[in-house]
Amino acid sequence: MLSNEQLERYSRHIILKEVGAKGQKKLLNAKVLIIGAGGLGAPAAMYLAAAGVGTIGIADADEVDLSNLQRQIIHSTQDVGKAKVQSAKETMEAINPDVKVITYRTFVDSESIMDLIKDYDFIIDGTDNFPAKFLINDACVMAKKPFSHAGIIRFKGQLMTYVPGEGPCYRCVFKNPPPKDAVPTCKQAGVIGAMGGVIGSLQAMEAVKYILGVGDLLTGYLLTYDALKMEFRKIKLPEHTEDCAVCGDHPTITELIDYEQTECEEI
Amino acid sequence: MKITVAGKVKEYEDGLNITQLIEKENVETPEYVTVSVNDEFVERVDFEKALKDGDEVEFLYFMGGGR
């Protein structure tokens, strides 16, 4: 049963035919894990908390740095030096005390990730490096967990959604991480602050739709956004996934891989 | 021939292959781009095969940032 306060708080959800009281209860019972409390994770965490996603895990080993605040809107000036997960938790709980926020002050690796994701219904990849992105993909494929992948750099962003058995995974498309420093991921490349807001919010939207079971997810599609051209493109991805090294019919990757981390810390 | 590159129809000379298209389109980090033609991934070893009139080509780029 929703309380009177919840009926009021979620009234703009409940009035939607796609949500209703039933959908709101689904959200309240759902568990979403956000890996990375930064440019993407910040808006995703805030919208999911506001939406009343009942349990939200957030994983990040870093502390808040002054250079984060241009885009990581979950953290404030007074949080500089604080653990990002703690700062994020405080903001999320201030937005919505209905939400149970579980913090993991760690970088994910092959040792920790399976245990981390196992209790969650949906995972949001808000990391900034290819080793982590491939690790999250492979772990989610192996554990049969849906997840939202995204990347942002400069004035561009993109995302795709993986649901087990319903289309290509990240590795189907990108095969292997590029060599270290071959593709810019790092702080020298820069990113426009609102890009995290656009793409991270879209990741939250995918999580909400998945939980509610409504609409079409970005499974089998890569959505790209070019802010300078103000152009969104929903690119159909090949359906052929049989040969994929991790999600294909005869996977060659059966254990998680810790690729070499790039040196950069923040974009 | 007409080929569609990233959603835009373009006129290119017959016999153009993917390697040449990557050059003409100034694709960023060409060594690491994923290419699909008509909704099929194209392996790097097949980048020298000629494209055909009406082909739809997409370039999919690594994008690593996020935190």
Nutshell version of this structure?
Chain B: InterPro entries: Beta-grasp_dom_sf, Mopterin_synth/thiamin_S_b, Thi_S, ThiS/MoaD-like. The complex is a heterodimer of chains A (267) and B (67). With 267 residues, chain A is of the alpha/beta class.
Overall description:
The complex is a heterodimer of chains A (267) and B (67). Chain A is α/β, with parallel strands linked by helices and 267 residues long. Chain A is built from 9 helices and 8 strands. In chain A, strand 2, helix 5 and strand 3 (100-104) form a beta-alpha-beta unit. Chain A starts with a helix and ends in a 31-residue tail after the last strand. The model of chain A is unreliable at 263-267 (pLDDT under 50). Chain B is mainly beta and 67 residues long. Chain B has one domain: Ubiquitin-like (UB roll) (Roll), CATH 3.10.20. Chain B is built from 1 helix and 5 strands; from the N terminus they run E-E-H-E-E-E. Chain B has one helix at 18-24; strands spanning 2-5, 8-11, 34-37, 40-41, 56-60. Chain B is globular, with a radius of gyration of 12 Å. Chains A and B meet through strand 5, strand 6, helix 8 and strand 8 of A and strand 4 of B.
Q: How are the strands ordered across the major sheet of chain A?
A: 3-2-1-4-5-6-7-8
CATH architecture call of chain A: 3-Layer(aba) Sandwich
Number of strands of chain B: 5
User: Can you give the mean pLDDT of chain B?
Assistant: 94
N to C succession of SSEs of chain A: HHHEHEHEHEHEEHHEE
CATH class of chain B: Alpha Beta
Total E-strand runs of chain A = 8
Distance between the termini of chain B: 43 Å
Mean pLDDT of chain A: 94
Organism (chain A): Anaerobutyricum hallii DSM 3353
Domain THIF-type NAD/FAD binding fold (chain A): 10-245
Keywords (chain A): ATP-binding, Nucleotide-binding, Transferase
Pfam family, one (chain A): ThiF
